[in-house]
Every structure is written in structure tokens, then in C-alpha cells.
Amino acid sequence: MNDVFGYIAYGDNEVYHFGALLSALKLLHNCPGAKIIVATDRSDLFRPYPIETMTITADQKELMSFGWRYHFGIKAWCLIEILKQADRLIFMDSDHYPYVDPSGGFRQISPTRSFMRKCEGMHRRYPVLAGKGVKIGGYTLTGHEPMWQSGILGIHRANAGALTEAYSAMLAVRELTNTDAPEQFCIGVALSRDGLALSRHHLPISDYNTRGKKAFASPRVMEFFKMYGNAPIAEQIRRAGWYRLWRGPMDLWRQRHRWSF
Questions:
Q1: What is the dihedral of CA 154, 158, 189, 70, to 10 degrees?
Q2: Which of 16, 44, 60, 253 is packed most tightly, with the most Cβ within 10 A?
Q3: Cα(164)–Cα(6) distance, rounded to whole angstroms?
Q4: Span 98-110, pLDDT tens digits
Q5: In this structure, are strands 96-98 and 88-92 parallel, antiparallel, or unpaired?
Q6: What is the pLDDT averaged over residues 156-176?
């Protein structure tokens, strides 16, 4: 099996790029020899590392995002492109990172089984899709389908067609719901129909995807590369394995006045 870990990092926010790189270094510490592909518009950043890159050009970003009408279309299309290079793919958002070896997750992936980060239930604004005739493949959306969070995705190459069908419906869902969630909604639906099974992941992966977590972790991501970015790659991997992005009790205490954790 050609098992691949994937990341996507594009745009002007450097934390996304360096976050993906630090996560990949943590992955290499916990899973030496892991095959990693990063779809990015900053290939120069990743080139010195044992990481493959898939360059995203400005023209491609405009095309993938439906003419900038829905920028998460870039993520959805890049998932399809990365999956072309894999038999089984485990994808993580750049603000997710493994704390032990996550490669056992590949055994949870088959032509009929996928996983995503978690099921969030029905989105309150999506019933507006009812009766609008928006289809994913041969299935007509009702808006009552559950929303799956896509910060983590495990998928088999056999389901590349399902991702393509999901992508094809995203702009219509975006324009009808005026939300940022069509990417994950459509992928979740596509991987749940026609005999396909979708479940919550069970991988040793943490994240900093809330405001409070980001406020703590983002500066530490950048600080890591200020301290160790010029060190030999093997040393960066070793340091990354033990580098803390999670909050301890004192960190939470310092954030006690925040409205969101």
C-alpha cells in the first residue's frame, strides 16, 4: 500500500505554513520514514525537508476556488490531487499534529470505509437546501444530512470520485447557505452514501483550532523556527517531537479572562 500523510497550506498567514511544517516534523519524529505530501504555494519553505510538495499556483487557486467565490474549494481540490498520489491518505489541517505514531490509522481505511474528525450533527442553516435540486452524484441534498468536520480525513483512493462529486456541489451549497462549511458538508455526504461508511477518527492527533488554543500555540509555532530553523534537519525533527503546543494549567489560568477557550 502507498500510504501518504497530507497537508495543505496556502495564503498569506505564515502560521498556516509553519504550522503544517512543524506538524510534519512531529510526524517524522513519531513515524520515521513517513511519506508526506504538502500542497502549498510556498514550496520553498518545505523543500529542504524530507517532504514532497505539490505546488499551487495563483491561477490554480483562482480556478479551484470557483473564481474566489469559495476559497475552501482550494482545500477540497487539493485533497483530490494528493489522493492521486496515494492508495490510502491521512490528511490533517495545519493546526493539527500527532503526539505519537498515527500510522495505525491507515488500517481503518478501505474502499468502503473512511473517517473524518468528528460528526457535528445537522447544521441549522442547511435545511434551506431542501427542494433546490443540488446533487452529490445521484443523491439530492435535503440539508438535514449530518455535518462532518474535516480537520482530519482518512480516505482510500477508490473514493477519489466521491471527493470529485462533493467538489462539484460545493459552490451551489455555498451560495444557498452563505456559510464556510460546504467543503466539509459535501465531503461528509459523499463518503456516507452508496454503501460507504464514515466514522469518527481514533488517531493520536491533537489540535489548536479554537481561539484560545491558537492564541497560545501560534506564537510558539513561529518561535520554534526562530530557535531551531537553522539546525540540522535531524535535530529539528528531534526537537519538534517534544515541542509543546498544548496548554498547561498555568497557561489556562493566564487565559482565564478570555471569552473563548
A1: 80
A2: 16
A3: 17
A4: 999 999 999 999 9
A5: unpaired
A6: 98
Q: Which of 148, 147, 144, 141 is nearest to 127 (CA)?
A: 144
User: Average of pLDDT values for 77-96?
Assistant: 98
**What pLDDT, in 10s, does the model give residues 48-72?**
999 999 999 999 999 999 999 999 9
Closest CA to 142 of 177, 179, 114: 177
Using alpha carbons, select from 3, 84, 100, 96 the residue that is nearest to residue 39: 84
Transcribe the chain into DSSP letters: --EEEEEEE-SS-HHHHHHHHHHHHHHHHHSTT--EEEEES-HHHHTTSS-EEEE--HHHHHHHTTTTT-THHHHHHHHHHHHTT-SEEEEE-TTEEESS--GGGGGG-BTTEEEEEEEEEE-TTGGGGTTS--EETTEEP-S-SEEEEEEEEEEEGGGHHHHHHHHHHHHHHHHHH--S-HHHHHHHHHTTSTT-EEEE---SEEE--SHHHHHHHHHHHHHHHHHHTTS-HHHHHHHHHT---S--HHHHHHTTT-S--
Distance CA 53, CA 229 (A): 19
